[in-house]
Amino acid sequence: MAGYLVDDARKVTTHRLFEMKQSGKKIAMLTSYDYSMAQIVDGAGVDVILVGDSASNTMAGNVTTLPITIDQMIYHARSVVRGVKRALVVCDMPFGTYQVDAQDAVRNAVRIMQESGCDALKLEGGVEIIPAIKGILDAGIPVMGHLGLTPQSINKFGTYTVRAKDEAEANKLKSDALALADVGCFAIVLEKIPAKLAQEVTDSVNIPIIGIGAGGACDGQVLVIHDMLGMNKGFSPKFLRRYANLYDIMTDSIGQYVTDVKNKDFPNSEEQY
Ligand code: KIV
Question: Rounded to the nearest whole angstrom, what is the distance from the C-alpha of residue 132 to the centroid of ligand 1?
């Protein structure tokens, strides 16, 4: 099943994302964490599905992304892969699986690829993780970078506010982006940074830049599926566009089911054997 905006039903590859940047075609990316959601997201024409470590928040109810384990990420990624025909499936390397040293990072990266069947991995950080990224790339695994607000470092930042507003942090982000592109990352996510800075980075590297709260000049956009479908009431940052209000739709539907069961209206004579 191809999505209504998809003119090419072939499997998305990192090379095709590069071609999309070259030809000015925007890249649509969303998260998914399970088979059923991934089937819908893929069928609707999303180019890249991220099995984000935001699963720690959306699926497990943790406050941060730090507690999710490599086994849990593999479970989510394997479930997503089973539901996807066209999109490129990228899995986040969870906190602690690539920061120790490059060898440990490669071992964990290989394990995620082998056990989940995903297409690529995403790591948060700049020059400090280049040795890990290089090792993973040398093992033949495509890597997506992630700069700006990097939620695995929330305890260092102490806040989820916009990053790289001052010159020093903006300069560091720009040189990090160049380093990630130079080492061979196939794309970079920029999270919650000023739109002007994201535009500068997008113009300065030849790999796709995918923004979340980083303005419209990026080569593509990513959102967390639960946020854009309105499944959690409490989260409404400025950058988020809600395309549905599933929280209310689901609550109403489930409430109606409860009423029907209690009133002996469900099942009726047509709904039984
Ligand atoms: O884990 C995640 O969902 C992410 C996106 C916010 C980019 O990293």
Answer: 20
**10 Å Cβ neighbour count for 178?**
15
User: In sequence order, what E strands does 66-197 have?
Assistant: 88-92, 120-122, 143-148, 187-191
Q: What is the pLDDT of residues 76-122, one digit of tens each?
A: 999 999 999 999 999 999 999 999 999 999 999 999 999 999 999 99
User: Which H helix or E strand runs over 93?
Assistant: none
User: Which residue of the set 169, 191, 200, 270 is catalytic?
Assistant: 191
Residue 148, ligand 1, Cβ within 6 A: no
For residues 127-153, give the mean pLDDT. Answer: 98
Buried b (16+ CB within 10 A) or exposed e, 111-129: ebbeebbbbbbbbbbbeeb
Q: How far apart are CA 33 and CA 54, in angstroms?
A: 9
Q: Angle at CA 55, nearest 5°, toward 50 and 60?
A: 165
pTM above 0.85, yes or no: yes
Ligand 1 centroid to residue 124 C-alpha, Å: 10
User: Which residue's C-alpha comes closest to atom 8 of ligand 1?
Assistant: 52
Calculate how far, in angstroms, residue 258's C-alpha sits from the geometric centre of ligand 1: 35
pLDDT of residue 187: 99
Domains and their CATH numbers in the chain: 14-228 (3.20.20.60)
Has 191 been annotated as catalytic? yes
At residue 180's C-alpha, the angle toward residues 162 and 107, to 5°, is: 105
Sign of the dihedral through C-alpha 163, 152, 47, 184 = positive
Nearest protein CA to atom 2 of ligand 1, as residue: 52
| Three-state secondary structure call for residue 107 | helix
Do 183 and 167 touch, CB atoms closer than 8 A?
Answer: no
